[in-house]
Amino acid sequence: MLVLPLQVIAGEPGAAAAGAVPEAKSVDLGQPVSNEEILKSAKTQRPSSASPDEPGASELEESEIPEGQAVYSDALSELNPPNTLLLLGAKVPPATSTRLAWSPSQSFEGIAVPTPVLVVNGANSGPVLCLTAAIHGDELNGIEIVRRVLYNLDPQELSGAVIGVPIANLQGFRRNSRYLTDRRDLNRFFPGNPTGSSASRIAHSFFNDVVRHCDALVDLHTGSFHRTNLLQLRADLGDPAILELTHGFGSTVVLQSEGAPGTLRRAAAEIGIPAVTLEAGAPLRLDEEGVQQGVAGIETLLSHMNMMKGPRFWGNPEPVYYESRWVRADQGGILLSSVSLGEEVDRGELLGTVTDPITNVRVEILSPLAGRVLGMALNQVVLPGFAAYHIGIQASDDGELPDESDPESTDEDVADHGVSEDDLLAE
Ligand SMILES: [Zn+2]
């Protein structure tokens, strides 16, 4: 991708002094708005990443407020009321909602459409919770989950702030693609590098302009490549703050996973922002049940974090799975499943069949272990080796894993389509 120097797109010179940070227009997020209005409001916002020779409010934010902290304006208390949020070159006063825009500072498309960032800043103080979706552009359920959560929030009732980015990878979204335009997976490049590859620069810009302002982060995903996931959290439970975050989601399964290097949640956790991935459903589909469950999980979290007056308590806690295994099809053909998502299976139980449409040879896929179907392929034509069922293994009461949790099978690097085991986890 052609990359122009920062200065070329820095634009909007002038509004540089600290006091000149424009106040974001307060809008009712639930009210429909025209594209023209969105573009107009994005233009009045200054570029998010201040370039070195152009000191602006972004610089002020970053120099005077410790990294990874909520950007409450202690340093600016004379200029701004308490609880004012400084984000993307705008001030968001307490008890207001607004739409901001984030553009990767390296974009060369003169007409690049900025990525909307929805902000609800509550009347009362509290943490900043960030919700990011569609870092993989073909994962639609998260977009709808963010929309529903943000548009239903009343800033008068909220303590703290919620920042929602419904479509982080707008490039991929417009092409129904998981990837960026250069075929890179954005979720392998965090926290990014301002002088690295295109993907790395985009990641850096997003990480600095948005993610560093969060006190906690939920990154929304779905299964990958025609696979669907039971509503589940992926979380590194060895980190006490992350473990605590997972307790807030009500009736949501938790799968222990450190997260692949470069994933947004891992990069956020590494700078002290507790982060989890919330998986719901399959790519390229909108699954009403998955969306409703995701919304319920996040609203329960808001209540758990004392950001919303509750009690919005959803269901009993679900088990935590400390390990999982992929079960593959050994023959190519038409895969038809016998189990459903979320089902408990015994060792040796029939998961599905693969039938060769030419020879009519049919093979059964049996579960090699007892566990629960956390993810599975949609019915489709598969090649030999296709990872078809993701079985979660629950620890026994004494915390020991059953013998059949053979670690060798999780060591495999490359699965079907040259996709790594990490990619199968779809974050
Ligand atoms: Zn994803």
Task: Sum this structure up briefly.
Helix content is 20%, strand content 25%. It has 427 residues and is α+β, with helices and mostly antiparallel strands. The two termini are 24 Å apart.
Task: Give an overview of the whole structure.
The strands form three sheets. This protein has a five-stranded mixed barrel with strand order 8-9-11-18-16. The two termini are 24 Å apart. The chain is globular, with a radius of gyration of 22 Å. α4 (141-151) crosses α9. The chain folds into two domains: 6-304, 3-Layer(aba) Sandwich (Aminopeptidase), CATH 3.40.630.10; 323-395 and 410-424, RNA polymerase II/Efflux pump adaptor protein, barrel-sandwich hybrid domain (OB fold (Dihydrolipoamide Acetyltransferase, E2P)). It has helices spanning 6-10, 35-44, 57-64, 141-151, 170-174, 198-209, 240-246, 264-270, 288-304, 421-424, and strands spanning 85-87, 90-92, 96-102, 115-121, 124-133, 159-165, 216-221, 227-235, 253-256, 275-281, 320-328, 333-337, 344-345, 350-355, 362-366, 371-377, 380-382, 387-394. The chain is of the alpha+beta class and 427 residues long. Mean pLDDT is 82; it is low at 1-18, 47-78 and 397-422. The site of zinc ion has 5 residues, from loops.
